Amino acid sequence: ATKAINPSQWSQKYNAEASISKARVILIYGSWNRVTPTNCRDDYDVPRWVALVKDALSTRNDAPSDVECMAFSVKADADEESLDICADGEAAGGLGAPSSLPALLFLRLPASTTSDGEGNSSREVRLEHVRTNGSALEAYLTRSDDDVPSTDSRKNLVVSSVAEAWSRLFDSKGRLLPPQSKIGRAITAINNRKDDGPATRLFIAGDRSQVGKSSICLGLLGALLNSGRYAPADLAYIKPATQCEQTQLVEEFCKHKGITSCVPVGPIVYFKGFTRAFLKGEVGETSEQLLQKASDAVDKLARNKKVVIIDGVGYPAVGSITGTDNASVAKACGRSVNLTSSAGTARSPTPVLLIGKSGVGDAVDSFNINATYFDHSNVPVIGAIFNKLSLDGFYSLPKCKEAVEMYFDKFQPDRTAFGFIPEIPSLKNAREDLAADLSEKDQLNQALETAELFVEEFSRHVNVERVVNAAKQATAKYIAEQTLQSSSTTSESKRSFAEIENSLNDLPKSKHPRPATTPEYKNISSINGNGFSLTREQIEGMASVAGAAGG
Predict the structure, then answer these.
(1) Which has fewest Cβ within 10 Å: 250, 342, 404, 430?
(2) SS3 for 44?
(3) Which of 71, 75, 91 is CA-nearest to residue 19?
């Protein structure tokens, strides 16, 4: 490994004319990546990434044998100088690292020199990046050889990308080719450079159950990491209300990526028998108390974070029978803000990203009816991502995308169709296709590889920074509007804080159901007619005997 060096200085650093004819293959990685420069492959006494280059060049019949490579690795965030050199483009004398790390590139110093007219000479540096997603490269480089069959599509994609980058640098006789026009994709300062502002909170809701909300959460987290703008410590995930307490892939993905701020099962759990027990006053908590627990959990998780992904449950109205539907949770889990000095604090509802189905008419109609549910509670909906679209036929992704985007442009100008995710054949039945004879550890590894593939595909179809910025803007707009309204009405009528907080809703505030109890109750352990509440075990036991299947 070496510290990042300005490419124009490499011939001085390695002052040997013999090395000029050699190409440099460089691995650029960050401290958050799992790939290490020294990991060796079983059949090579060289780093795995160097072996990858050898494998790639061996697939080219026209690869000249007399062009030798020198291998170097650079840790992008080793220090400020390394970060600047990796992030700067070629024109600025840098390596022009792509937005997704790790990355591979070829560097070549031509033998001829140019003079500046003052006795100083220099060589024009040639760089060619391997055009592959960082998550795909990392996933391949960190797998054991036994897990990489020759037919593996990811391996073939990475190998072909390396060979293609070489072909942009050399012709079949080893002669340096002229540079092609390039699109710069510089990385951004990351990791220890924290945002001073509060975390951006984003609520993910579905137009129905099983539409892929948690998969989209996983895709967002993975794409944010791969963008290079966020370290694992900058991100958080929580599902504040849930019907399922089994371990989900998004939880394992967070562990795998080092996202330690992950709460897959939040404080509101719709366990078996919950709703009927709640209505009878046997749960021991009111709607407001449950929502406060969700609010506290998100507040705690959001400290020192840049983005918090809040995963909804089912479709928007799920939980309405207990006053903890998705709109109410989104409101409760929003940022705490000061409206005016005299008004105190209130909550800015979390902006919602709806996950929709495939199609055109049905997809748009479903989006509208579900967005209306949030509108009624004055919770902003920034737009949608449409999931599981076919790749061919009348309802293919390109055709649906064209029509749905046309609708949003004409009739929903304040909202955005942020992306259209194809139904990926290799992922369609990923859970069912896990080999039964594999160990639990191997099944998990296989599932995580599936997650990496999904993140890679997700990143191609969704601009995650655009989603985050839309959420920021929606929150800022809401706070500005309500601050102005609160300031105006307070100065006119000197209303109490409770009145100001209630005025945050343009529409009448929905009434949350409450346990069957007298208005005078104070002790949540004595809230039903018999003077006591039941434990979860008691509620579930009675519900099971009665034949309940769920909450």
Answers:
(1) 342
(2) coil
(3) 71
Residue appearing with tokens 């909170």 = 201
CA quadruple 401, 389, 399, 160: dihedral sign: positive
pLDDT, one tens digit per residue, over 67-111 is 566 778 888 877 777 777 887 776 666 788 876 788 888 887 655
Higher pLDDT, 548 or 84: 84
Give the Cα separation of 268 and 290 in Å (integer).
6
- Per DSSP, 359 falls in state S
Distance, CA of 478 to CA of 500 (rounded, Å): 15
User: Which position has the token pair 């034949």?
Assistant: 547
102: preceding bond cis by omega (within 30 degrees): yes
Neighbours of 127 (CB within 10 A): 20
Confidence band for 527, pLDDT divided at 50, 70 and 90? very low
Tokens standing for 383? 């737009």
**HEC letters along 303-342:** CCCCEEEEECCCCCCCCHHHCCCHHHHHHHCCEEEEEECC
Report the relative pairing of strands 262-263 and 121-122 from DSSP bridges.
Answer: unpaired
Q: If you ran DSSP here, which 8-state letter would residue 519 be given? A: T
Place of tokens 């009816």: 369
Residue 463's identity, in one-letter code, is N
Spatial neighbors of 425 by CB under 8 A, at least 6 apart, are none
Q: What is the 3-state secondary structure (H, E, C) of 239-276?
A: CCEECCCCCCHHHHHHHHHCCCCEECCCCEECCCCHHH
Pick from 158, 126, 160, 127: nearest CA to 142: 158
Contact in structure between 457 and 421 (CB atoms under 8 Å): yes
Cβ-based burial of 299 (10 A; exposed 0-12, middle 13-18, buried ≥19): middle
Which residue do the tokens 């209630």 mark?
A: 502
Please, are residues 240 and 267 in contact by the beta-carbon 8 Å criterion? yes
Range ranked top by mean pLDDT from 87-96, 201-210, 488-497: 201-210
Residue 448, CA distances (Å) to 210, 218, 431 in order:
20, 11, 11
